[in-house]
Amino acid sequence: MQYVTVLSPAFSGSTLLSLMLTAHPRATGFGDTYFGPKNDPKDLCTCGRSFLECEARLYVQDYVRRGGVKKFSWDVAAPVPRPKFWPIAKERYWPITSSSTLSLIRRIPPSVRRAIFGTFYRENSLILQALDELGDYDFYFDGSKFANRLELLRTEIPDIKLIHLVRHPGAILYHDQRANISRVEYRMAQWERYHRRARSFIALLGESSYLPVPYESVVQRPEQFLNRVGHFLGIGDWPTDDPSVIDRSKVHIMGNAMRESVERIVDYSNTWRQKLPANEVARADNKFLEKQWAIELYESWNCDLEMPAK
């Protein structure tokens, strides 16, 4: 299968993206894929079963164990190599998890990577083999969102492709506001760092294997988005009668609460502007306008950000 990684900061719409992409009859994927510290084992997969009772996941788990990784279990598996004794609640403190170590990982030669992280590579190879047996799939969409994971996988998957999902930083500030959290400067710096690291893969993968996508284009023009992804993957226009409908009949997505309720794409991309304090809106707009690459990206997709005229 063609391996396609989705990179995006948290709360940028990757769950919706995974729902749309894995609904393609030739595609598969698990969205966020791995059980994180903010998840509950009883959380429902889109198939209606709990995370640890999803039949597709159980099939993959059994396949990986039979393939030689006998202790593999979804409730402790990780997107990057992590010791089994390291608790999930402390996941972000494991050095390889943090994208700040990306430059260090890039200095590790492929042969050394294979020697150190052999179980990680074996585990991921078996997951793909299991999914290949589950259906007639040609594409695997990995929504784990870890830049370090993509860097490590490049060693074994040289033709890996990347969809880089970008969302206006104001929408992320709005998420914090709803959660009664105030960390504007931290979020702005995080947004900038994440996208700088994601864009660093352009030179490593080549422009033909890198597709930057504004979240706003996904919800404002879903047909355009899906068709561009189809041409990026070499399969042409996306086979759907109504691109706004979310077909959840065969997908197994582990993500936010959207996975349990969304049936149709609705454009709420700019509603945060009326709900954030004016100073935070201005801070987010200024951060966005600092990045020429972001301006050009949004213009190329004809996105409407409802930004005030300069």
What's this, in brief?
This protein has 310 residues and is an alpha/beta fold. Helix content is 42%, strand content 7%. The longest helix has 17 residues, at 118-134.
Question: Could you please describe the fold and organization of this structure?
Answer:
- This protein is of the alpha/beta class and 310 residues long.
- 42% of the residues lie in helices and 7% in strands.
- It is built from 14 helices and five strands.
- Strands 2-3-1-4-5 form a five-stranded parallel β-sheet, with helices on both faces.
- Helix 2 crosses helix 5.
- The longest helix has 17 residues.
- It is globular and about 60 Å long.
- The relative contact order is 0.19.
- The model has no long low-confidence stretch (mean pLDDT 91).
Write the topology of this structure.
Layout: E1 2-7, H1 14-22, E2 27-28, H2 55-66, H3 102-105, H4 110-116, H5 118-134, E3 139-142, H6 147-153, E4 161-166, H7 169-178, H8 184-199, H9 201-205, E5 210-214, H10 215-220, H11 222-233, H12 258-261, H13 278-289, H14 292-300
Parallel strand pairs: 1-3, 1-4, 2-3, 4-5
Helix pairs in contact: 2-5
